[in-house]
Amino acid sequence: MDGSYVRLRDVTLDWPPSVVPPVLVGARGPRTIRLAAERGDGVILDTGTPADAVRASCADIAEARAAAGRTEPFRVVVYAQPAEVSPQVVADVAGDLGEAGADTVVFVPGDAAVDPMPLIEACAASH
Q1: pLDDT at 104 over 70
Q2: Domain range summary for the chain, segments of one domain joined by +
C-alpha cells in the first residue's frame, strides 16, 4: 500500500482472519461518505444525522458505488440519540431512519451519566 499518509511494504499478518472482516467507515461530510462508498463495505453516520441527511447520503453512496463499479452489499449504520425515550419514539426514529436508507440503527442514551435502562427497555418494547 502506498497512500498519501501511510506506506506499507512487505507487511503481512502473523494470524490473518479466516474471513476478511467488512470495513465500515465513520463519515460525516459528503467527501468522506463518497470515499466510504468507493472503498469500504459500509458507512457509520453519527448521532444527530436526520433522516433527510441519511437519504441524501444514500443517494451519494449509490452514485459513488456505481461510478466505482462496486456492486457488493453496503451497510448504512446510523447512531441515534432520541430526545425522548419511549417505545413509540424509538419505533418512529428507527422507522424514519430505516425508510431513509439505514439498515442498522444504534440507539445511545442522551447523557453518559444517565441510566441507560429506560432506553434499552424502550428499544425492547418497540418491537
Answers
A1: yes
A2: 24-125
